[in-house]
Give the backbone structure.
Amino acid sequence: MIFNSTVQADVLFRDIAGDKKSGLNYGRVPSSINSLLVVIKQDIVDPTIMPELPIHAQGSPGVALFDYDLDGDLDIYVTNGPNVANSLFSSQLKETGELSFIDVGKRSGSGLVGQDSTGVCFGDIDNDGDQDLFVLGRAEPNRLLENNGAGSFIDISSNLAKVTPPRTSATCSMGDVNNDGLLDIVVANTFDWKDRHAMAIEQWKLNEHNQLLLNQGGNTFKDNSTASGIEKLAGLPKDATGNAAISWSIAMVDYDQDGDVDIISTDEQGFFSPASAGGVDRGYIRIFNNNGKGIFTDVSLEVGTAKPGSWTGIAVGDLNCDGRMDIFGTNLGDRILMNMTEFFAPGVMLSRWFVARADGTFNDPGVGDLISTPFGNGAGIADYDNDGDPDIIFYGGADVGLFKGSSNPGTILRNEGCNAKFVLDEKAITETVDHGRRNVLGLSLGDLNDDGFIDIVSVSNFDLPDFAKLQFTQKKLNSPFDKYARFFPIFEPTDGSKSYIDKGGDFEWNGIPLQRGSLAVELASATNRNGWVKVKTQGSAGLVVNGRVNRDGIGAVVQFTPDGGKSVINSITAGSSHGSQHALDVIFGLAKARKGTLEVLWPGGDRNRLYDVPQSQYVLFPEIPCGFNKTWASGKDYEVCVTTALNKLVAIKTITRAQQNWFFKSALRAFSEKTSAPP
């Protein structure tokens, strides 16, 4: 019996998107390939039809939270399908004092009505102070939108290297791979979604290589994929060398904290048997280590993340408060396999976390008392209850073709004592929508109402109507997720039996139409009075002498140490989850501490520190290109460097005089502590 696998927390999430007053009117329309599925639904089929079914026929929407108009609140960008504009919900919080939104997607130039849009990421590609959009497409060119600083966007996609034929992209991420101060873009590509041959019939030839677009300045990019090494995958059989994987998600993050961004991708095993069953492993969490110059090596086998799975989403964070970057990957889960032929042993396909060791490798500890975890897509690591340790949030619905997996109720895993051991917080989602009826793909985290607690935004590609009856899988695993182990049979046995796919036989469409996908915006309501600190990084390239970091500080690693508490790190990551991007501001929970210390490791390796940061504080942390961790000829040289940089930041009104004094005293203290520390 499991006694401690669930918890009743003091944070509740409530959806506001269903309230018309919110202005969040969204419905994901199907992709054009849905017409293929409509034809198949007219016939009697058997399980052998599965490879012919299109995947993501209803689309694959993503979501991003960013302040597009620089008015001080987070806006919501969510993608849509052909002939319908992507939505840019402009927050009215600063204008009215109330959280509501106006959809300006079409009039802002970010609607992209002609594109079947999938994932999205953002960042300031030209270091002009506003964030630009990169929007992905299904079997069509991706689009680059420059923010002109006046609340609108200009399509500059012609500045991208042309790819022929266009690929089907799922997730993108930005980061400065060569530390030249300019954001580059990496794209996770998959295969043509018109059928599932790449998932079940052809193991390699239909897969599409990921891409690395190198920023050349002037908002132009060249394709550096081959030269960068990201096309060289470790662990492939000799006869598959040079082929691509299927990557559903990707992220640029400095996982080893050496001052350059690395690349992590989550890859798909599909219905192919793994090596343990006589087949070949192809679905890994891959880590591409950066040599500091934008050249990457796949080190997945060496570091221990090369575990076969149908990995779909990714999140990074410090799950055990040891100052190292851990990884969470969403996966197929055990529940889907209960309705299908099982190639994998129980537990192998679970959504789970990998804990970083001191030697640079990762431990795969399993999921502990949770026993099992469900399918997931979008994911994030954040301290949702601000108690001082990072938690895991992941949603997802699995459209397997003949049925929809509905085993994920909207999963919030609470970290107990910052030890990477988690319990399911069921109460947190009791007053919100039933995510089991939503086929969620994209998920993004950020503080929408500016109360210091993260909120959850998710988007589905289709929903089930209320009258559609969900069925429960028969097998129990003694897991807190047992009560959510549901699925919806899109096709049902023609003989009326309760058996399912692994029993064979004929199937027919159940006649229940799928509803358009929905947007859920779940605001946190907390009663624990835990403190917090919110941090926005700002690079100084082009602003300060020797400033080297991109304007958003993307790729930085931020550490916070509350007085009397454990240090926690977080990454400024521009694209991860599944087709989505979290807000760039990071929030650290203080629990009951009153203040703490911030430290930033910038791309390039400089470290800055800020002491005595009080609770409920929003900190704009600019790059001071004078790392206290570097070797200086004298303390005077270091002091001159800091003074010069801070004077310039005051002159351009990045910081105030009071903040200058705070950063100056902190810089000197950090240098003193470093130089006086024993070797």
Observations:
- The helical segments are 34-40, 93-96, 197-200, 225-228, 300-303, 333-337, 635-651, 657-676.
- Residues 657-676 form the longest helix (20 residues).
